[in-house]
Specification:
The protein has about 230 residues and is mainly β. It has one helix spanning about 1-15; strands spanning about 25-40, 45, 50, 55, 55-70, 75-90, 100-125, 125-155, 155-165, 175-190, 195-200, 215-225. The strands form two sheets. Strands 1-5-6-7-8-10-11-12 form an eight-stranded antiparallel barrel. Strands 2-3 form a two-stranded antiparallel sheet. A hairpin with a 2-residue loop joins strand 5 and strand 6. The longest helix has 15 residues, at about 1-15.
């Protein structure tokens, strides 16, 4: 990750020498995120062996960016605070006492994320259309997981629920670092107002070692912003 960050910073500084004066912008909006699970059927969710099914959660994003124009192209590094995560629902296998539990776990994860996008701009009457893509790196800074379980023992139901703070790190609940690729598209009006769509595809496994299983973040976002 350190090598990637160094490369991104070097690229920004090198291209800036040939660019126009940069513009600074802000934007914020809503995220719709999932966590893609793959591996064996013994995916570990909340400490219980279940067959995990990813569901979507709604979160938010906001951040600042710099747009360095290079003709019809621009280099656009940013620093974002973005919400990710997902829900996992599934059934355990039959337990020793003959009961079966339905387990639901919701992960709300928050990252400081640094994307660097190469953006192409197409002018039109009231502004410009833009589309771009590039890599990102992120660091998990806060999160919570909510667990609910319904144990069915021959018709007798026992329900438990908990809410705990996420610990980030190789020995925690979620790895602290993440990298991936993103894409953006939107419209910027001549006055500076912009409407933006983005998609972030996590490429790194954010789960600590769990019997060869992997978990990756996928996020679709929509935001409104302003370029000064």
């Amino acid at each position: 990750m350190k090598i990637l960050l160094y490369f991104l910073l070097l690229s920004c500084s090198s291209l800036a020498a040939f660019a126009q004066l940069p513009s600074i912008g802000i934007k914020g909006g809503v995220n719709f995120s999932t966590m893609q699970a793959s591996g064996t059927q013994a995916n570990v969710v909340a400490g219980t062996n279940t067959i995990a099914n990813s569901g979507s959660i709604t979160s938010f994003n906001f951040g600042v960016f710099v747009d360095v124009k290079l003709g019809h192209f621009s280099l656009q590094p940013a620093v974002n605070f973005t919400g990710k995560g997902g829900t996992f629902n599934g059934f355990t296998g039959t337990l020793p006492n003959g009961s079966v539990s339905q387990v639901s776990t919701k992960y709300n994860l928050y990252y400081v994320q640094v994307p660097v996008n190469l953006v192409y701009h197409v002018p039109f009457v009231v502004g410009e259309f833009y589309v771009g893509a590039g890599p990102f790196v992120g660091m998990g800074v806060y999160g919570r997981k909510k667990l609910s379980a319904d144990n069915n023992n021959n018709g007798t139901h026992t329900v438990i629920a908990s809410s705990d703070k996420i610990t980030f790190g190789d020995n925690g609940d979620i790895r602290s670092d993440e990298y991936g690729a993103g894409a953006i598209a939107g419209i910027k009006l001549k006055g500076g107002l912009l409407f933006n769509l983005n998609y972030d595809l996590g490429l790194s496994n954010i789960a600590p070692d769990q019997a060869g299983n992997t978990f990756k973040n996928h996020v679709f976002g929509a935001s409104v912003g302003f370029v000064f």
